[in-house]
Amino acid sequence: MKIINMNCTTRIGSITNAKYVSNDTITVIEYNNSCSECLCKAFFSSLSPSYVGLNCYMNNKTCYLFVNYSLSGMVVKDINTKFIFKQAPPFRNVTEDPFPLSGITVAGYGNGSAGNTYKSLKNPFGLALDAADLLFVADYSNSRVMRFEPDSLTGTIVAGTGVRGTADNQLGSPGEIAVDASGNVYIYDDLNYRVMLWRANATNGTRIAGTGTNGSTNENLGSGMGLTRDSLGNLYISDKGNHRIMKWTPNATVGTLFAGTGTAGNAANMLRYPYGLFLDENNSYLYVTDSGNARIQRFNLSNGTIGTTVAGGHGIGLSSSQLYNPYDVCVSKAGDIYIADKSNHRIQLWKVGATTGITIIGMTGITGANATLLYGPSNVLLSANESFLYVSDNDNNRVQRYKLP
User: Fold this and answer.
1) 254-272 burial, b for 16+ CB within 10 Å, e for fewer?
2) Which stretches are annotated as coiled coil (predicted)?
């Protein structure tokens, strides 16, 4: 294969996480969504048209496909697998990918400012929606859980006081949350090493898991973030500091080990600093954001001993097959996986059966507080009808909502 420099002239479409195959089926260029790899390079094919090139717009870090054919040409696009270059009428356009998506701020200040008023947040983490589309936000650094009405940027405190503490009416940096049909809120109270149940309209919470003391026995929890609840009231708890997932049945005083061994590792039966959880009860799966191993693990609910890697698992990195400190995951009814790839400042979409992800929100390694950029996203949540994706834009101190294509 001969790589040449060329004068890119006519833009005919955008490129995202793909493989390029020339019309002689021999010339191939791999592309992993890094603009450093598409600075007006091209390949030479043994058949005409002979030149196809990439160029990078530096103002928004977006790569585009160009042609400068000696004859006419177009591109046939097969998303996530390959681009095939064929003869066709001159410079015919292809449809551009809709990514990165543009979002609106639904909680916190859109400019990224932190605060502790009813209109502001500081490092939001867990998200939940109830049946009336009320948005619940774990306001981590303000040690409270906020509730926001649809189309309102003014929230109401539903748990905690806004001051970190260990009393029954206080929280110590809440992580993930769950809301049941009665409006009760379940909260992983991270730095208090406990899970709290805050009943609807209550001023105090009740400890339902953990002892409030950091520990590694089955009755204790360490520092942690992830929490989900099934239809029978069982809690799955991501005990990050102990590298394990614990299952807590209703009214139990001791949990049982569900996944991980309690020791950090990268084997299929081990975890390293697990964060967010997603429960797919219909298919009997629990998805675990195995942050320290830069992967998403899927466990069968009937046996959590061995996990299957469904995203990442190729070491820490910024390529489309890698993750960097992933913090959370959610999965659509079709099985598509959305990942808050925190230290890459992006949301990755991993289609069913894919070996690479697509960056649908944010730009890899780029931080910002506009409508398309993120700064350390920590949580992802699909709306009930899967039309919208909510993102805790942690270091921008806001929650963003995106209309999915």
Assistant:
1) ebebbbbebebeeeeebbb
2) none
pLDDT at 97 (0 to 100): 55
CA–CA dist 78, 89 (Å, integer): 19
Six-digit token string for 1 = 């294969």
Q: Whose CA is closest to 42, among 16, 17, 10, 77?
A: 10
Q: What span, in angstroms and rounded, lies between the C-alpha atoms of 275 and 64?
A: 35
Query: Which CA distances in Å does 89 have to 21, 73, 92, 148, 362?
Result: 19, 6, 6, 53, 35
CB 279 within 8 Å of CB 288: no
Joined together, the tokens standing for residue 140 give: 């981590």
Residue-wise pLDDT for 371-401, tens only, equals: 999 999 999 999 999 999 999 999 999 999 9
What the chain holds in terms of domains, given with CATH numbers, is 16-95 (no CATH), 103-403 (2.120.10.30)
CA dihedral 2, 7, 12, 16 (to 10 degrees): 60
Q: Comparing C-alpha atoms, which of 280, 327, 332, 334 is closest to residue 308?
A: 280
- Residue 311 CA to residue 313 CA, distance in Å, equals 6
Residue 180: both structure tokens together: 């049941």
335 contacts 321 by C-beta, under 8 angstroms? no
